[in-house]
Amino acid sequence: MDIILTFNETRIIGSLIEKEIVTPDQYPLSLNALVNACNQKSNREPVVELDENTVQGVLDELIKKRLVTAKSGFGSRVIKYQHRFANTEFSQLQFTGQQLAVICVLFLRGAQTPGELRNRTGRLCKFVDVREVEVTLRSLMERESGPLVVRLPREPGRRESRYAHLFSGEVDIPEMPEQAEVPSGRYDERISLLEQKIEEMSQRLERLAEHFDDK
C-alpha cells in the first residue's frame, strides 16, 4: 500500500471523514473546527490536545500528499479543509459506506473488536449485527490490491479479537500466551455466577449496616 500515515494524520483524516458524514452542513471544516474535532473527549482514543500550529503543519503535509484539499468560500477569507482520502474522484480508494465507517473508527479509536465497531459506527452507517461487521472487515482484509486491515491475536480475557488498520504500516503484534477457548455459554454462566455472588455480598453488607445502625 502506497499510503503511509502518521498518528496525527489518521486523527485528522478520521475527523474529516466523521464530520463529513455526521454534520455535512458544517463540512468542510475550518482550522479551528478541525482542531476541536481532533481533540474531542468523546469518540476518540486516545484523547489528545493538538494545537493549531501542529494541526496546520500536518494539514500542509496531507495537502502535499493530495489527501486533503484547502478551499475558501466566495467572499470568505476563512480557509476550510476537506479530505480526498477516499470516495472522491481524486482517490484510488473507493469504499462502501460500511467500509469507510470501519476505517474511520479505526483511525479515531485504534484497534477495535467487531462488537465495538458495530456500537461505535452507529452515527456513520448501519450494521444489522456483528456478523455483518465481520463480513466488512473480511472484505478490507482480502482486497486484491492488498489488505487494509489486520486481525490481532485474541487477548486474554477478551471474547473477540481486535482489528487494526494498516495505513500506518505493519502493526507490531505482541505474542500472546495460548489460551483455551471458553465456550460462550460457559463464559456467560461464569459471569452470571460472579454477578450473583456480588449481589449476595451487597445484601449482606446492607444487613450488617442496618444491624449496627439499630444499635
Summarize the helices and strands and which ones pair or pack.
Blueprint: H1 7-22, E1 29-30, H2 31-38, H3 52-64, E2 68-72, E3 79-83, H4 97-109, H5 114-120, H6 130-141, E4 149-151, E5 163-165, H7 184-214
Antiparallel strand pairs: 1-3, 2-3, 4-5
Helix pairs in contact: 1-2, 1-4, 5-6
Query: In terms of structural class, how would the helical and strand content be classed?
Result: mainly alpha
What helical percentage do the residues reach? 40-55%
How many angstroms separate the termini?
73 Å
Q: Looking across the biggest beta sheet, what order are the strands in?
A: 1-3-2
Portion in beta strands? 5-15%
Could you name the CATH homologous superfamily of the largest domain? Winged helix-like DNA-binding domain superfamily/Winged helix DNA-binding domain
CATH class categorisation of the largest domain: Mainly Alpha
Task: Provide the succession of SSEs.
Answer: HEHHEEHHHEEH
Average pLDDT, all residues: 86
CATH architecture of the largest domain: Orthogonal Bundle
Query: According to CATH, what is the topology of the largest domain?
Result: Arc Repressor Mutant, subunit A
Name the poorly predicted regions.
176-189
Query: What's the alpha carbon Rg, rounded to whole Å?
Result: 22 Å
